């Protein structure tokens, strides 16, 4: 890892002796970090990856760029392209005119004639008047002006006097110029006729056409990229500046590297600094979770936050950038609740925009393994199970939360116990889908421990009841799920009718309990 390179890659940071003498990004490290900070932050790499992705997704862009005239460097080709296409059209028309002359020459006055029709370049518009193409402007079948059969001029332009150049006519004139070329004397040189070069030019035309399409799509994509660039890359210049400031203020000692790049976040490891500005003790090792989200992800996750009443009012007014921040904020609030209930989880250090700094679960830069990656003795496995059962109950009852993404992927094994992480999507049980989320969590946990050989592990329905205190009696998954949804609906109806939700669910016929 090249620490100097990383510092240099932070353009917003600005040069200064302070950071030159004490590099904020820390000394190169040789420990088992899955990818280097330099890599993650490298603009070059990002561009390369971007290109790779684009090429994979839009191979025709490459195909067009390989065409004889258009190269990848031609960015603003919109008007050039139009010109080129018009030229090409003229070439093709010339070619066809020549073809027609050849045809005439061969056929002469013969009653049996050979047609070159199939060799023509230009088909769609002017093929039906093939016989007397030259005079098409004098007929009522002007293919370009079908709805204006009136004054059809003989000389290839429309209108009288000053009215010749209307906006519409400009286009028509372009086309008519092309057509007029065909009225030129037969001696007029239009190229080598049926030679190779004209065939090639047809290829050029196709390449141009294709390029026009891809160009259109490309510009649409570029526009989108510009709009959502922060969403695409977690560590954009603004984020780098945020991280830099954290180091510069002494809150963090060094950021050593990246421990995880997910779809929704990038997590870095850092050594805590000894800053005194916040009256908090900075943990010796920190995890920095940088939230990112593509528009798609953000749509998928809508349901978690949109219906969470804590964020409801704000949701509609927010732009994507602010919504990303809201995820970070949500994780912070949820972690704080858990911390207060004594559930093992990262401790919040600070939240800055979409960057959440928390205590690091692990040691010496090595993150604690996920439950899915660790092999536990059967005794530890059993211990872990009961601990999780207990944590889920605490989470539900004391924190009034459902994890909503609980699985062996979001539980770390550290210090002989299970730690819960990744709670940005956690919701309150009375969230419109809260109980469904809980049931899904229960299914994950139950399956993991049953497969892991914990004989005592409750099945998902038993676990659900044990955590929620509900008494859903359905003995099969489908009915159980239906009852869960009925409860959720009851709560929603209550909100509709009374303007507030039930504070607790009840499934045994008791009247619902309200919060006063
Ligand atoms: P994601 O939404 O990307 O899954 P997580 O919060 O689960 O985000 O973090 C991704 C990974 O980063 C985790 O699986 C874990 O390995 C690591 N990680 C996250 N937070 C911490 C932490 N506080 N301490 C140690 N490792 C962490
Ligand atoms: Mn996760």
TrEMBL record:
<dbReference type="InterPro" id="IPR051272">
    <property type="entry name" value="RIO-type_Ser/Thr_kinase"/>
</dbReference>
<keyword id="KW-0808">Transferase</keyword>
<keyword id="KW-0597">Phosphoprotein</keyword>
<feature type="region of interest" description="Disordered">
    <location>
        <begin position="124"/>
        <end position="161"/>
    </location>
</feature>
<dbReference type="InterPro" id="IPR000687">
    <property type="entry name" value="RIO_kinase"/>
</dbReference>
<comment type="subunit">
    <text>Interacts with CASP10. Interacts with IRF3; RIOK3 probably mediates the interaction of TBK1 with IRF3. Associated with 40S pre-ribosomal particles.</text>
</comment>
<keyword id="KW-0418">Kinase</keyword>
<keyword id="KW-0723">Serine/threonine-protein kinase</keyword>
<feature type="region of interest" description="Disordered">
    <location>
        <begin position="497"/>
        <end position="516"/>
    </location>
</feature>
<keyword id="KW-0460">Magnesium</keyword>
<dbReference type="GO" id="GO:0005524">
    <property type="term" value="F:ATP binding"/>
</dbReference>
<dbReference type="Pfam" id="PF01163">
    <property type="entry name" value="RIO1"/>
</dbReference>
<comment type="similarity">
    <text>Belongs to the protein kinase superfamily. RIO-type Ser/Thr kinase family.</text>
</comment>
<feature type="region of interest" description="Disordered">
    <location>
        <begin position="1"/>
        <end position="20"/>
    </location>
</feature>
<dbReference type="GO" id="GO:0005737">
    <property type="term" value="C:cytoplasm"/>
</dbReference>
<keyword id="KW-0479">Metal-binding</keyword>
<dbReference type="InterPro" id="IPR017406">
    <property type="entry name" value="Ser/Thr_kinase_Rio3"/>
</dbReference>
<dbReference type="InterPro" id="IPR011009">
    <property type="entry name" value="Kinase-like_dom_sf"/>
</dbReference>
<dbReference type="InterPro" id="IPR018934">
    <property type="entry name" value="RIO_dom"/>
</dbReference>
<keyword id="KW-0399">Innate immunity</keyword>
<keyword id="KW-0690">Ribosome biogenesis</keyword>
<dbReference type="InterPro" id="IPR018935">
    <property type="entry name" value="RIO_kinase_CS"/>
</dbReference>
<keyword id="KW-0067">ATP-binding</keyword>
<dbReference type="GO" id="GO:0051607">
    <property type="term" value="P:defense response to virus"/>
</dbReference>
<feature type="domain" description="RIO kinase">
    <location>
        <begin position="224"/>
        <end position="469"/>
    </location>
</feature>
<keyword id="KW-0547">Nucleotide-binding</keyword>
<feature type="compositionally biased region" description="Low complexity">
    <location>
        <begin position="1"/>
        <end position="18"/>
    </location>
</feature>
<protein>
    <recommendedName>
        <fullName>Serine/threonine-protein kinase RIO3</fullName>
        <ecNumber>2.7.11.1</ecNumber>
    </recommendedName>
</protein>
<feature type="compositionally biased region" description="Basic and acidic residues">
    <location>
        <begin position="137"/>
        <end position="148"/>
    </location>
</feature>
<dbReference type="GO" id="GO:0042254">
    <property type="term" value="P:ribosome biogenesis"/>
</dbReference>
<keyword id="KW-0391">Immunity</keyword>
<dbReference type="GO" id="GO:0045087">
    <property type="term" value="P:innate immune response"/>
</dbReference>
<dbReference type="GO" id="GO:0004674">
    <property type="term" value="F:protein serine/threonine kinase activity"/>
</dbReference>
<keyword id="KW-0963">Cytoplasm</keyword>
<keyword id="KW-0051">Antiviral defense</keyword>
<dbReference type="GO" id="GO:0046872">
    <property type="term" value="F:metal ion binding"/>
</dbReference>
